């Protein structure tokens, strides 16, 4: 059995309806969307801002016209990270109550918020217009085959020099670890690398979030661009 087939078997524990039911009960607050870890938000944004600015400084860095915030919740990343750097930010979020709160939470920069997509990631079909597509703490809710398909969709939605950002928990055990409460999984680093390759994406930057408290999963950031050496979709 190949590693990818093993990963597919492990991700079968994900139940999309159960995940939606879980989030339907979560309050539309920073502490709610961060699972009780609202106090790490500022440090998270600092790390993400440094990562994004490094990409902007590269010779073929992404543009600053339109970004997409995926699994946006109440708009924490839109407000504190994307809106300050982009002219427009589209958001996708499957839970309607979070979308209802988003414009209020974003506040003064809500004029930069473009289209609000009330959709799951696995069913999303965006236009080809995004300079940056930001995915954070959301990909663990996708089964592996759906995640590959979703990343391929994102890849096809990038502008020239566009970048997909993935910022996710990873396990230290080297194995997938399920969370039955919200019907998600946490993948290991090797598994993410396998999935990125399957989606014909190449890592141009990778780093670990620093200054997070002990006792939580390590968090990694990846910058991904289309792998021009492999033009066909697997």
Strand order of the biggest β-sheet? 3-2-1-4-5-9-8
**Largest β sheet strand count, sense and barrel closure:** 7 strands, mixed
How large is the count of helical segments? 8
- pLDDT below 50 for ≥5 consecutive residues: which ranges? none
Give the integer mean of the pLDDT values. Answer: 94
Query: What is the element string, with H for helices and E for strands?
Result: HHHHEHEHEEHEEEHEE
Strand composition percent: 15-25%
The secondary structure category is alpha/beta
* Backbone shape: globular
- Please bin the fraction of helical residues: 25-40%
Using the CA coordinates, give the radius of gyration: 17 Å
Q: Can you put this structure into words, describing what you see?
A:
The protein has helices at residues 3-11, 16-24, 30-33, 41-56, 76-82, 96-106, 144-156, 189-198; strands spanning 66-70, 88-92, 113-117, 130-136, 158-169, 177-179, 184-186, 201-208, 219-226. The chain has 234 residues and is an alpha/beta fold. The strands form two sheets. Strands 3-2-1-4-5-9-8 form a seven-stranded mixed sheet, sandwiched between helices. A two-stranded antiparallel sheet has the order 6-7. Helix 7 links the parallel strand 4 and strand 5 (158-169). It starts with a helix and ends in an 8-residue tail after the last strand.
